[in-house]
Amino acid sequence: MPYDDAALHEQVLADVFARGCPSRDVLEHITGRWGILALAALASGPARFNALRRRVDGVSEKMLAQTLQALERDGFVRRDEQSTIPPRVEYSLTPRGERTTKLLLALIGQVEDDLPEATESQRRYDEAKSARIG
């Protein structure tokens, strides 16, 4: 089996806590507001751009396009352009995207399940902060 020293060197040095580590950019693309929602929206299967935009309520066309480009560049999303008239473009998850999205969906589920507790915690925090200020 061929030995790729450069690839191994990069793997060994990946440390998300290190300031210059490229893993930070990838992590930001995945976990940013629009990245996580775009990946989750693609979990149910391939979708065209406008269908994704409708699913991810509140995202602008520009932000969705930038998000999908970053996720495609990082290897999580596949862009399939079919040469029809008019051109038809579909987005889908790559195998890496599927693995990552499975974890993100678990996180989303936990956040949604725990929302009543989080809301109560926010209320108590805000009341305590108001009492300290007032």
TrEMBL record:
Give the HTH hxlR-type domain ranges: 21-119
* Record bears the keyword Transcription: yes
**Which PROSITE patterns would you find in this protein's record?**
HTH_HXLR (PS51118)
A Pfam family this protein belongs to?
A: HxlR
Q: What's in the keyword line of the UniProt record?
A: DNA-binding, Transcription, Transcription regulation
Q: Which SUPFAM superfamilies match?
A: Winged helix' DNA-binding domain
Entry protein name: Winged helix-turn-helix transcriptional regulator
